[in-house]
Amino acid sequence: MINVTVxxxxxxxxxLGLASLYRAFKGPTATDRVAAMNMIVTMVVxxxxxxxxxxxxxxxxxVALVFNLAAFISTICILKFLxxxxxx
Length: 88
What we know:
Layout: H1 2-26, H2 30-55, H3 60-84
Helix pairs in contact: 1-2, 2-3
């Protein structure tokens, strides 16, 4: 039963990832593109966690957390650059 649920989650993550890619390429503003890239990073982190669960190798959770932290910092930097035109 859990395998069916994990497969459904992976399929929905794939569909949402495609929608995020569409928004990243067709977004009318830079803010829409940044939000779409943030969603894509979230999908990658969720894929990593699901992969970690299915293979019972929980070392990948640390990788997902570090990747998520780096994505958060880069999103803040990009949005600050878009707002002010500089980072520092």
